[in-house]
Amino acid sequence: xxxxxxxxxxxLAESGTAGSTASAxxxxxxxxxxxxxxxxxxxxxxxxxxxxxNVTMFNIALPDISRAFSLLPSEAGWVVxxxxxIYAVGSLTYGKLADNFPLRRLLTVGLLLFAxxxxxxxxxxxxxxxxxxxxxxxxxxxxxPALATLIPIRLFAPESRGRVxxxxxxxxAFASGVGPIVGGFVSGWLDWRFLFLLSVCPLATLPFLRKWxxxxxxxxxxxxxxxxxxxxxxxxxxxxxxxxxNGLLLAAGAVLLAxxxxxxRSSRHPFVQPxxxxxxxxxxxxxxxxxxxxxxxxxxFLTPIxxxxxxxxSTAEIGLxxxxxxxxxxxxxxxxxxxxxxxxxxxxxxxxxxxxxxGMLALSTFSGHAVWIVSLxxxxxxxxxxxxxxxxxxxxxxxxxxxxxxxxxxxVTLTNFMSGAVTGAVVSKIVDGSEAxxxxxxxxxxxxxxxxxxVYLGLGAVALLSLTLVYFVFVRPAKAxxxxxxxxxx
Length: 490
Hints:
By secondary structure, this protein is mainly α. Helices cover 79% and strands 0% of the residues. It contains 19 helices and no strands. It has helices spanning 4-16, 34-69, 73-76, 78-97, 103-122, 127-141, 143-155, 158-189, 194-198, 206-212, 225-244, 247-266, 274-277, 280-311, 315-343, 345-366, 371-398, 405-433, 449-488. Helix 15 (315-343) packs parallel to helix 17 (371-398). The longest helix is centred in the C-terminal third of the chain and has 40 residues, at 449-488. The radius of gyration is 22 Å and the shape is globular. Residues 1-33 have low confidence and may be disordered.
């Protein structure tokens, strides 16, 4: 507990000043020259495109897979659900491994697994092969977002990390938006199996990754396989319980999580150091991130349903309606990272929440109106998430000591995925079991859009709650620290 104030002081120093070099995670110099590091970032963005797209583009292909193997929709859904579970836990696992193993070795293993699973999926002759392929794919693809977030922290000085993290966030935002479009195009014009073949492409980047990533030595430490297995089981049970509303699975997840906590408190080399969770700034950031990514995922989940039910839009039309928001986030997200470098993370985080709240309130107001208006409203949400992701990642990294940044960023990624599972299940339950009713928003339309308007309004309230937490946890202490510094004449 004695180290907590130092971590928080580092976070406050980073968030309140531009170009601060006082972060706890940033005491080391960049490990590669600027030329190689910048080439590496561009290459990572390309690989991220394929990794993140795989989370969303198979959603479009589920009806075709169901028909191909005579499956129920719930059975075919494992193509997405299974991938998401392994992707979430795998991100944390690779983050933990990065604390001990060289990044080039981990990315090599990840890309080989990704490509191997993709080839198996393209050649699949039955549903069991398809599932096996998706699990192998995910075991490899999960290395990419975890390590792509960690690489800017290790290879770039603190004063330029925000710019790089902004570029990474832009790539993720673009990939999330373009995934359904690519999935619909490839499945419609060729065959759903070609979605697997598309994912072999990142293997071509491996020689360049190995060339541009700096050499690192093995660091001492052991991998806690039992702890990893307990956490994987707990997260898998929890995600399945949430998506299927199963109390027994939820209880099993709680038991496994309790055993995991006992394990990390008693093991000499735990899978996750308990000290990570004793860091108040990091804990608060996780809670805020859970709310923020959960509400933004709910918008992504709910909007296609609204456009189909209220506006009668087809799958192809929905993709085109969502595309401008994805492109805007990709183009503008990097500026959020640059602003975080110049002005500190907190002003950008506050700006992100203003954009998110405005976008959700606008969606609440204009649900059921012309689809181009909905498309404009989504731009505020997507750009806000992109700004938030880059600036909050930089802020959370500043709260952690260097030896914990790998597992810390992995925990952040895992939390984001869990929030998506929770909000997706909750929102789908609300939409399935509720009548249209009347809109709470006095400016919204009556009729079938009223239910969607009310959900968007609730999500806007969640964004405001997140902004309130940011103020009390980060902004107010930063102002107090700045006033104390001025008062002492330091």
